[in-house]
Every structure is written in structure tokens, then in C-alpha cells.
Write a structure and sequence with these properties.
- The chain starts with 6 loop residues before the first helix and ends with a strand.
- About 8% of the residues have low confidence.
- It folds into two domains: 82 residues, Arc Repressor Mutant, subunit A (Orthogonal Bundle); 112 residues, no CATH class.
- The strands form two sheets. A four-stranded antiparallel sheet has the order 3-4-6-5, with helices on one face. Strands 1-2 form a two-stranded antiparallel sheet.
- It is of the alpha+beta class and 214 residues long.
- The protein is 36% helix and 17% strand.
- It contains seven helices and six strands.
Length: 214
């Protein structure tokens, strides 16, 4: 299907937010993608955001594999937040502090809820399929959106890494006694569609194994 798209449409598909699938192209480009079955609008009162459908994400993967991004038209390239999409904070220190961070997290979380509703017939109480493919990103966003702090050298906080199985993540706490914070994290995640079970390493360090709620 990607062969019939214009350069602007290909750029919009390839440039959609990696996490939510939200398009950043002009409205007329988004409407063409909606007509092609590659995007859906979400919103009220004429104020819509546009998101890739499952077919749109499939076409995006196809275009990316073929290097479709090379023929983007610079004047029509979609606008991307933070120069390349929202990056969830996993507590590793890779995300730099920013005075805009709280607003960016809130916007990313709202976008996530919107795409859940779009893809799951209005339901937003469990992870969408793309979240399962990006467990670490989705779990970190869920935690940060609740105000749970990611780890920093000067403070205790959560760390999230890939879990031992597909569609899972592992979360720890850097403070001296992580049991209480991890239990609170498990409760926060349960309210956002994830299930977390508590475990301990051989050295007795507590951690959570997190997976999408079935």
C-alpha cells in the first residue's frame, strides 16, 4: 500500500511518533491517510489529532525497512516533539532534566490514552498492542505520569529495564529500602492496565516483574 502514497504522505507515516503513532503532518495530509485507511482521527469539536491505524503502522515498518525516509520533502516533514518523539525516563540518567518535562509527560500520557481508545473500541484501561512491543517505554511513561520519580544520582527513584520474557519489564528502586516504594508502584501500574508481581534477587534485593494485564 505504501507505493501509492505521495512523498508528503510517506514522510507523515514514517515520521509518526514512535510511541503513540500520532501524526505531525498538515491536516490535509492526515485526511488523505484517513481516507486510505492508514490513520484515524480522535478528538471532539473539530479539534482532532490523527493516529496511525494497525495498517498504518505496518506500512510505516515497510517504508522504514526500505529507507523511505530518504526521500522526505524537507518543507513537508512532520513536526516531532523533542526533535524525535517523546522519550520515557527509565531512570538510567539518559533523559536530561527540563522545566517542560512535566507538561511533556502529561501530553504523552494523554496521547497514550487516546491511542488506546482508538485501537480498542474506546477502552483505555489496558495497554494497546504497540505498548506491549515497547514495554519499558510504556511502563516508564505510566510511572512518570503518576509523579513517581525516576532515579537520579542525588535521589532515590525507579529504574526500568527489559524483562526476562517478551512483553515484560523489570523495575527496581534505588533507595535503601525499596519494598514499600515498589509496592506503591505496583498499585499505580495496576490502575493503568499493568500487572506487577514482587520478587527478590539472590542477594535479597526487591524488584517487580511487569506485564500487560490480560
Amino acid at each position: 500500500m505504501g507505493k501509492g502514497l505521495t512523498g508528503a504522505q510517506r514522510a507523515a507515516v514514517v515520521g509518526a511518533d514512535e510511541g503513540t503513532g500520532r501524526l505531525g503532518a498538515r491536516v490535509e495530509v492526515c485526511l488523505r491517510l484517513v481516507a486510505a485507511g492508514l490513520a484515524v482521527p480522535h478528538g471532539r469539536g473539530g479539534h482532532h489529532a490523527y493516529y496511525l491505524t494497525s495498517e498504518g503502522r505496518r506500512v510505516r515498518a515497510e517504508l522504514a525497512a526500505k529507507g523511505a525516509g530518504k526521500d522526505r520533502e524537507p518543507a513537508q516533514e512532520p513536526v516531532r516533539e523533542q526533535g524525535g518523539g517523546f522519550v520515557a525516563d527509565d531512570g538510567s540518567g539518559k533523559v536530561a532534566p527540563s522545566p517542560r518535562r512535566a507538561a511533556e509527560v502529561a501530553a504523552a500520557w494523554e496521547g497514550l490514552l487516546q491511542i488506546r481508545r482508538v485501537l480498542m473500541d474506546g477502552a483505555a484501561d489496558r495497554p494497546a498492542p504497540w505498548e506491549k512491543d515497547r514495554c519499558v517505554h510504556a511502563v516508564c511513561l505510566a510511572l512518570e505520569a503518576t509523579g513517581c520519580p525516576p532515579a537520579r544520582p542525588e535521589r532515590a527513584g525507579y529504574t526500568v529495564t527489559e524483562g526476562p520474557e517478551p512483553d515484560t519489564a523489570r523495575a527496581g528502586w534505588t533507595g535503601p529500602d525499596g519494598t514499600g516504594p515498589l509496592l506503591r508502584m505496583a498499585a499505580l501500574l495496576a490502575d493503568r492496565g499493568w500487572q506487577a508481581t514482587d520478587h527478590r534477587t539472590r542477594d535479597g534485593e526487591p524488584f517487580l516483574l511487569i506485564s500487560p494485564r490480560r
